[in-house]
Design a protein that fits this description.
Layout (H helix, E strand, L loop, with lengths): L13 H15 L3 E8 L6 H5 L6 H10 L1 E4 L20 E7 L2 E7 L13 H7 L4 E6 L3 H6 L14
Parallel strand pairs: 1-4, 1-5
Antiparallel strand pairs: 2-3, 3-4
Length: 160
């Protein structure tokens, strides 16, 4: 251990320099997609929560704190799996850059709603596959205490 020099070392090998540069570029380009689920008081299943066509004014203000409302059609930045050509995944979403990382939010009320699909599979497909889900419980602290994360069924999302 005494023979090891401490401190940074200059790398002279072109192969290692190239690999380190590639690693640094990859690290700086990590982007994220987060789900945002709106729930009303007394909703007990994810099917009910995903069927909310609109959020409250307070919810919409909350989403605006998370990121800017962006038009998806023609969007040329990180899209987080959303369609940017034909409005297949909604017309708008919320997007931000945080510490150099792009974040696209999959907001339940901005994703397409289907009256014929009780489970809202299209919404569940995006939100259910996000590693991070933010659940906005409308109605304040009283309603928050009645929310149980187990109401949301997903094989991918883990509740800790």
């Amino acid at each position: 251990m005494d023979k090891l020099e401490k401190g940074p070392k200059e790398i002279f090998s072109p192969e290692i320099q190239k690999d380190l540069l590639l690693l640094e570029e990859q690290e700086g380009s990590v982007n994220f997609k987060f789900g945002v689920l709106y729930t009303k008081p007394s909703q007990l299943t994810d099917d009910e929560m995903l069927s909310n066509e609109n959020g409250s004014e307070e919810f919409n203000q909350f989403v605006s704190l998370l990121g800017n409302r962006v038009r998806l059609k023609g969007w040329d930045k990180y899209r987080g799996g959303l369609d940017v050509k034909g409005d297949m995944t909604g017309e708008y979403s919320a997007y931000t850059i945080y510490e150099g990382h792009e974040i696209m939010f999959h907001v339940s009320t901005m994703l397409p709603y289907s009256k014929d699909n009780r489970q809202q599979v299209e919404r569940k497909r995006h939100i259910g596959n996000d590693i991070v889900n933010i659940v906005y419980v409308d109605g304040g602290a009283t309603q928050m205490s009645q929310f149980n994360p187990a109401f949301i069924k997903s094989q991918f999302t883990r509740i800790l």
